[in-house]
Structure formats: C-alpha cells, structure tokens
Amino acid sequence: MSATTPGMVCAHHHLYSALARGMPPPPGTPHDFGEILELIWWRLDRALDLEMIRWSAKLGALEALEQGTTAIIDHHESPNAIEGSLSVIAEACAEVGVRVVCAYGVTDRHGPEGAERGLEENRRFLTEGGRGLVGVHATFTCTDQTLEAAAGLAAEMDVGVHIHVCEGPQDADAPDRLAALTRDDWVLAHGVHLPTDADLAGTIVHNPRSNLNNSVGYARPMRFDNPVAIGSDGIGAAMLDEFRMAYLCHRADDVTATPEAAWCWLKTGRELVPETVNDRVTWTYDPMDPWHIVFTPGIRPRQVVVDDEVVFDDGAPTRVDADEIRAKAAEQARRLHARL
C-alpha cells in the first residue's frame, strides 16, 4: 500500500550540523544553554570552511530527500568562511534536487566587521537572485544597530528575516528589541521563552527534539496566535519524526492533545515554501493521516518528484551518488573534528 502527499518542509535547519555527528567532546561540560553554545556550536561554526559547508549541505539535502522533505529553510553561520557560503549551500542542494531557502546568521559575536560581512553575504546572495531570507543569529548576540540594519536589508530586498527568538533565557529581552522590526514574513525559530502576549509578527518555528536536547524547555506552541511551523534545528530533516515528537511534547503538556495540531504545524511549512505543494511524495504507507502516522514507525518515501522531475526513486536519489556524498562528507567531518 502507498499514498501520496505534497513535499515536507523543514522550516528551520542548520545544514552544517550534518558534520557534527561524532565530534570530539567539548573542552568542558556545558551546564546551561549558554555554555552549550559557547563550548559546542560556536566552536564548530568557527572551524568551518567552504568545502566542509559544501559536503554538509549535500549530505543534509540527501537525507532530506530520503525522508520525503523537498524544501529546507536553512540558517547558516561560518565566521571564518562567510563570503560565498550561501551560494555553496544553494548549489549543493540544487545538485541533489532539494529546494533551499538560505540565510547567513548575522551576529556581533565577532565584532562589527564580522556583522558587516554577514550582512553583505546576505545582500550579495539575494542580489544575485538567490532564494533566501536575511539571517540574524539572535538579539542577545547583536547590537540594536545590527538588528536594524538586518531588518532594513530585508525590507529593501522584500524578504523576511530568519532569527532565533527566545530559545533560551539569555534572549529574554528579544520581544522588546524586535517589537518595532518584525513583519509577517519573518521566521522566528524556537520561541521557548517568548511571552504569550509578545507582539511579534512572523511564523514561529517549533523545534521539539532540539529543545529537548538543549534542555531549554517546551515552547507550548498552542499558546501563540502566530502561525506555527516545525523545524529540526539541525537534527536532520526527518519531518515525520519531528511531527511525532511535536505531538508527544504537546501530549505530555496536555492530555487532551491530538495529533491534528502538530500535523497542522507541519503543513504550515508549505506556506513558507509554496512550491512544495506541487511536489509529490509517494510513501510506503497508506493512509497518510496524522492518527496513523504518529503511531506508525518506519514510513519512508518510495518516490519523490520535485518540479515534475523524479529526484528520488526506489530508495535512491536519481541525480547524485548517495555513497559518494556520504564518503566525501565523512572526509570533511574528519577534517572538521581534527580542527576541534
């Protein structure tokens, strides 16, 4: 038996995280979210170069196809390899056959020059016709001037901003600092510590597995009036798995919760990348409705069609060699881990 649906969308991803698996332990044990960032993720992004970025994107795109995900909204940071990084990601995903919306996460962590280089990479990519948003890391690593510059660039380019908002308690003042800047086309990742009455425009992206992994808490997305989508925050692009986790977190918080809410969040991703409505994923299971899927493990795509082209068929991509991508990505992971 099989059923067909539109493509899945990962509404918040970090493709470079594909190379993090098996990375060396941090120099100390993180005890809170701030230390997780400083001891793990900010060390990793400083170690990236363009070749690592290329193969992590190819691996992430391949793994997305293998899970029926046809579009990724990516948030990228590589402070020592900024220039050209978004084009490398876009080209890698296009080669595999996956849609990607790119953004470089602007931050003042590396001084005003680093922030300006990040802004310029967003501008260059968008000006050259790339599909993207303007990326911002988070308010707590940016000055007000940088936040205003990013919002201004987004308005100038007629795109939204992709930003982490209130993922941890460090970002508590984000609502006040962003209130006059946000628009409906912004992508607000996490929102775990976002007050329910915060007057921010945009789509909130719930990342349940990552929030559990980082021990930042449960976002309780049902409380928001904003549209809610689902992302992975870098833990692959298996959106059916993410949907199941979103439901379980909701159910743990509210015994009356049903899978329909998380299923609606999953479908919201298609509003951010509307072309995916016409992508076709034929699955190994029928029916593909939330009450069945949430309790049925092992559902995989038989075939994936993007822009009327079969890009995945009978367990394998049609455009690229999956074994080669995994081998080359493993080489780059070893280089990255050696730097760490």
Short note summarizing the structure:
It contains eleven helices and 14 strands. By secondary structure, the chain is of the alpha/beta class.
Account of the 3D structure:
- This protein has 340 residues and is of the alpha/beta class.
- It has one domain: TIM Barrel (Alpha-Beta Barrel).
- It is 40% helix and 17% strand.
- It has eleven helices and 14 strands.
- Helix 5 links the parallel strand 6 and strand 7.
- Helix 2 runs parallel beside helix 3, helix 2 crosses helix 11 and helix 8 crosses helix 9.
- It is globular and about 55 Å long.
Mind telling me the C-alpha Rg?
19 Å
Unreliable spans are: none
Biggest pleated-sheet summary: 6 strands, parallel
Largest sheet, spatial ordering of strands: 5-6-7-8-9-10
Helix and strand string, N-terminal first? EEHHEHEEHEHEHEEHEHHEHEEEH
Q: What is the overall pLDDT average?
A: 97
Strand content: 15-25%
Q: Which CATH C-level class is it?
A: Alpha Beta
What's the CATH topology name?
TIM Barrel
The total domain count is: 1
- Overall spatial form: globular
Structural class: alpha/beta
Helical element count? 11
Rounded to the nearest angstrom, the distance between the terminal CA atoms is 47 Å
Question: Helical proportion?
Answer: 40-55%
Number of strands: 14
- The quaternary state of the protein chains shown equals single chain
CATH homologous superfamily placement: Metal-dependent hydrolases
Just name the CATH architecture: Alpha-Beta Barrel
